From TrEMBL:
<feature type="repeat" description="PPR">
    <location>
        <begin position="441"/>
        <end position="475"/>
    </location>
</feature>
<dbReference type="GO" id="GO:0003729">
    <property type="term" value="F:mRNA binding"/>
</dbReference>
<dbReference type="Pfam" id="PF13041">
    <property type="entry name" value="PPR_2"/>
</dbReference>
<comment type="similarity">
    <text>Belongs to the PPR family. P subfamily.</text>
</comment>
<feature type="repeat" description="PPR">
    <location>
        <begin position="300"/>
        <end position="334"/>
    </location>
</feature>
<feature type="repeat" description="PPR">
    <location>
        <begin position="371"/>
        <end position="405"/>
    </location>
</feature>
<feature type="repeat" description="PPR">
    <location>
        <begin position="265"/>
        <end position="299"/>
    </location>
</feature>
<protein>
    <recommendedName>
        <fullName>Pentacotripeptide-repeat region of PRORP domain-containing protein</fullName>
    </recommendedName>
</protein>
<keyword id="KW-0677">Repeat</keyword>
<dbReference type="InterPro" id="IPR002885">
    <property type="entry name" value="PPR_rpt"/>
</dbReference>
<feature type="repeat" description="PPR">
    <location>
        <begin position="406"/>
        <end position="440"/>
    </location>
</feature>
<feature type="repeat" description="PPR">
    <location>
        <begin position="857"/>
        <end position="891"/>
    </location>
</feature>
<dbReference type="Pfam" id="PF01535">
    <property type="entry name" value="PPR"/>
</dbReference>
<dbReference type="InterPro" id="IPR011990">
    <property type="entry name" value="TPR-like_helical_dom_sf"/>
</dbReference>
<feature type="repeat" description="PPR">
    <location>
        <begin position="685"/>
        <end position="719"/>
    </location>
</feature>
<feature type="repeat" description="PPR">
    <location>
        <begin position="616"/>
        <end position="650"/>
    </location>
</feature>
<feature type="repeat" description="PPR">
    <location>
        <begin position="546"/>
        <end position="580"/>
    </location>
</feature>
Length: 899
């Protein structure tokens, strides 16, 4: 029957499970028995040791127990009434409570609700109607309350009372529907049931509750002039309204009238205490309360709670606590109301420990049991602060004490099971909600969705969302983002698309990051058209998409060879205030150049760009750069000439990009001609020469590149590191080692140092051939033995096998470091050298690489695997191969030959 608690949910093991254990163990759901330490996965906050008694719980028993408790609630009839009021009515009617002046609709509206309510055979009484209205007001369902008030007023045998009128007035007042309420009062005499109660009393109460004490007092004055008077109920409603509206002078007058007529009672005392408190005369309020007690006047807990509440609102909790204890000892009746207010104020102030301690003391000493509302207040605040153990205790107190749960209690229990990681229990209770009339609120829906997403149950989370939408709830921004992320992560893009449509239909605007992730996912999965449709909906709502969203869409259309749409988006993003990068321009232009009629589309984009922004050198440079990458130097040259015709002088960047476009397309003669033309209008500096040399090296024209280097040196221009790096690399690849060594000599003459790139190239080719060392010995003058160049020669000799070094790994690193900075590539070369002779030393170097903070790459692992295979150590090679695969790398083709 029982199974381990860790099997209660599909979700992750949670440190919250032990709270559930504490709760259910105390209520007979747990079977005791030995438990191994591995049976649970608790964090540091676990309340009990894993060596203690095991807990074995069956989830279905938990669900069944809570279902039975939920079914015991006594407001199922009220749920049915309000369900009828919500779902029946004129199909083509749209209600606007704030703006509608047609009160005949609100109070004489006929619909199928009349018939449905009549079939319930309700026993109508003042008490019952007040309970229904109170229940409806707790759910903020003002319209249904109005419908019910209208319906019962038209039923034979029932007459509205001042109490029911007062109740509906309070509902309208709290909903701030003052215009509707005043409109009702002005046409009150026309209502069929208006004269079944004390007509003028009801009007005075109505205007008083509506926040119009001046009108209420005028009506009261007219009544007195006509020899009429208010009854005790209306007097106290008027007195309380005057206090609420801070009409303190009028309060004293009405209080005196109440006293003269013998109407003074506990309600009078409570209202007068509120009057003192509203004026912040707390000491006077306390004196007034003590005098009432000393005079033997009627004082109950409601009056004391008014002062206790005021003291708490003024942060005088110590004084309020003493007052609670003092008056409890004085034998004041209905102290439960004081206890309830005291607990509520402690909770609202965040003093949860004090509230729980007080509750425990009063329960054990006096048998005090809070009502459902107070329990809910505590439970919801404890849930918010993740104090699940106390939530468990309170829920079980309610259950064992047969305290009837309401909607708030059931929603809190649902949230509790979500937070405790008991996903199966939460889902079962949610799926069975119709059995006990559970209507999840927005908080419960959010908890359910968040929990299911975290548990990997994304489909269940989405179904909960759809149900919440049917109940007119929509998740908050954070929950929406969590669900959207989960749907994108699981690749459920159709559901994600529906989710976005739901949001847009409700004018709900998720965060930019949510849309960005969705559109990015659509683009990544080759559904860029769907992403574009979502983007179009955002434009329709005048919402500006993020810069990253535009980037993802443009890249997606580039990959789909839809340069026309990519170009349109490029212009649009600038109109929306985003600045595209040079590389984004490049990609769009390359895509346009690969389509039909590329020239026309290219210049159309240029024209639109010049209309979109003020013409500048930067804009033209973007197009030259893009055309160069698309290997369309002809287009680049046209843009260059257009810029000149527009009166914009090309800058150095323009010249460099134009040169690069020729060189990238291997149009060497055009590049040389353009370079010669530049001689006529600008001084030729390092940047232009470097562009020519590097560009020529990239197209394997080292001969011309060397000529430019020579020309550069003759003009006294010092070449950049790039020039030497590319020339030395290309010379070595062409086996022109003598050229490479001469370049090293020249490098030293101009005062430049060997870079990591150049040093690694020399060591790599030393491993491949001894010719580099021969050229080095032949062309280098005999240097000082301690110079850096001498050390570099020794390294080249060592790597080529011509020089035997006695240094260990650490010393060899020091030698290299004196010649040039080490990087991962250098260490890989050292590994390769060591793996030829000693794999143990190679492994030691690998671990040292990691200790120094370098990240081994594919070549690092490949070198080790290949080395072990060469030495016949196949088992070790396999182990390193497994590590390589785990790191996400694959062996090279050469290594595969040895496997």
């Amino acid at each position: 029957m029982f199974f381990s608690l860790r099997n209660l949910s599909k979700s992750r093991a949670s440190t919250n499970y032990h709270y559930v254990f504490s709760l259910l163990n105390a209520n007979g759901f747990v079977s005791s028995g030995p438990c191994s330490p591995s049976s649970f996965c608790f964090g540091p906050s676990a309340a009990f040791s894993t060596t203690s008694t095991a807990c074995l719980i069956q989830a279905k028993d938990v669900v069944l127990s809570f279902k039975e408790w939920f079914k015991s609630r006594n407001d199922a009839l009220f749920d049915h009434i309000f369900q009828i009021l919500k779902t029946t009515g004129d199909d083509n009617t749209v209600l606007d409570l704030e703006n509608s002046n047609d009160l005949s609709f609100h109070y004489h509206h006929r619909s199928s609700a009349d018939l449905a309510l009549a079939h319930l055979n309700l026993c109508l009484s003042e008490t019952f109607v007040l309970e229904v209205l109170r229940y409806g007001s707790s759910g903020h369902d003002v319209l249904s309350c109005l419908k019910f008030f209208d319906w019962v007023g038209r039923q034979p045998g029932f007459n509205h009372t001042r109490a029911t009128f007062h109740a509906i007035f309070k509902i309208l007042s709290r909903a701030k529907l003052m215009s509707l309420m005043l409109d009702f009062l002005s046409t009150y005499s026309k209502q069929r049931y208006a004269h079944r109660v004390r007509f003028r009393d009801t009007l005075v109460m109505g205007y008083a509750v509506a926040g119009k004490p001046d009108i209420a007092l005028q009506l009261f004055g007219k009544m007195r002039f006509q020899g009429l008077d208010l009854d005790v109920f209306a007097y106290h409603v008027l007195l309380n309204a005057l206090v609420e509206e801070n009409c303190f002078d009028a309060v004293q007058v009405i209080a005196k009238q109440i006293s003269l007529r013998g109407f003074e009672n506990e309600i009078t005392h409570s209202v007068m205490l509120k009057c003192y408190c509203k004026q912040n005369l707390l000491d006077d309020a306390e004196k007034y309360l003590r005098k009432l007690l000393s005079d033997g006047r009627a004082v109950n807990g409601h009056a004391v709670s008014v002062l206790v509440d005021a003291l708490c609102k003024n942060n005088k909790f110590e004084q309020a606590g003493k007052l609670v204890e003092e008056f409890q000892g004085a034998g004041v009746e209905l102290m439960e109301s004081v206890y309830g207010v005291w607990i509520r104020d402690l909770v609202q102030a965040g003093r949860l420990d004090g509230a729980l301690e007080f509750l425990h003391d009063k329960r054990s000493l006096e048998g005090y049991v809070p009502d459902t509302f107070r329990y809910n207040t505590l439970i919801c605040r404890l849930l918010r602060e993740d104090r699940l153990e106390e939530v468990c205790d309170l829920l079980m107190e309610m259950k064992d004490g047969q305290i009837c749960p309401d909607k708030v209690t059931m929603n809190a229990a649902l949230c509790f099971f979500c937070k405790a990681g008991m996903v199966d229990v939460a889902l079962e209770l949610y799926n069975s909600k119709s059995e006990f009339g559970l209507s999840p609120n927005s908080l419960a829906y959010n908890y359910l969705i968040n929990t299911f997403c975290g548990d990997g149950s994304v489909d269940e989370a989405y179904e909960v969302l759809k149900n919440s939408i049917k109940q007119d709830y929509f998740p908050g921004r954070k929950t929406f983002s969590i669900l959207a992320d989960a749907l994108c992560r699981e690749g459920k893009l159709d559901k994600m698309k529906e989710l976005v449509i739901f949001a847009l239909e409700r004018n709900f605007m998720p965060s930019g990051s949510t849309y960005d992730k969705f559109i990015t996912t659509l683009c990544r999965t080759k559904r860029v058209e769907d992403g574009y449709l979502i983007h179009g909906e955002l434009n329709r709502l005048n919402k500006v998409a993020r810069k990253s969203t535009y980037f993802n869409l443009i890249r997606g259309f580039n990959e789909s060879s839809r340069g026309d749409i990519a170009a349109r988006l490029l212009i649009e993003m600038q109109e929306r205030g985003h600045s595209p990068t040079r590389n984004l321009f490049r990609d769009v232009i390359c895509c346009l150049c690969a389509t039909e009629n590329p020239d026309k589309q290219f210049f159309n984009l240029l024209e639109l760009q010049l209309c979109c922004r003020e013409p500048s050198c930067q804009i033209y440079n973007f197009f030259i750069y893009g055309a160069g990458h698309a290997k369309r130097p002809d287009l680049a040259r046209q843009v260059y000439e257009t810029m000149q015709r527009s009166g914009i002088e090309p800058n150095l960047r323009s010249d460099v990009l134009m040169l690069q476009s020729y060189l990238r397309s291997e149009r060497i003669s055009d590049a040389l001609n353009f370079f010669n033309d530049l001689h006529q209008r600008r001084e030729m500096g390092r940047r232009l020469y470097s562009t020519m040399i590097v560009g020529l090296c990239k197209v394997k024209r080292v001969d011309i590149a060397l000529d430019f280097l020579k020309e550069m040196r003759e003009k006294g221009v010092v070449p950049s590191d790039d020039c030497y790096e590319f020339l030395i690399q290309l010379s070595c690849w062409n086996q022109g080692y003598h050229i490479a060594v001469n370049l090293i000599n020249d490098l030293e003459k101009v005062g430049r140092h060997i870079t990591s790139f150049t040093g690694n190239i020399l060591l790599l080719h030393s491993l491949k051939s001894q010719e580099l060392y021969d050229a080095w010995v032949q062309l280098r003058q005999v240097p000082n033995e301690k110079s850096d160049s001498s050390m570099l020669g020794l390294l080249i000799g060592a790597f080529s096998g011509r020089v035997r070094l006695s240094q260990d790994i650490e010393n060899l690193e020091e030698v290299i470091e004196k010649c040039f900075p080490l990087d991962v590539y250098t260490y890989n070369l050292l590994l390769r050298s060591l793996s030829e002779t000693n794999m143990d030393r190679a492994c030691a170097l690998f671990y040292k690489i990691c200790q120094k903070g370098y990240e081994p790459n594919r070549w690092t692992y490949d070198t080790l695997v290949q080395g072990f295979l060469k030495h016949g150590r196949t088992s070790e090679a396999r182990r390193w191969l497994e590590v390589m695969y785990r790191k996400g790398f694959h062996p090279t083709e050469r290594t595969k030959l040895f496997i």
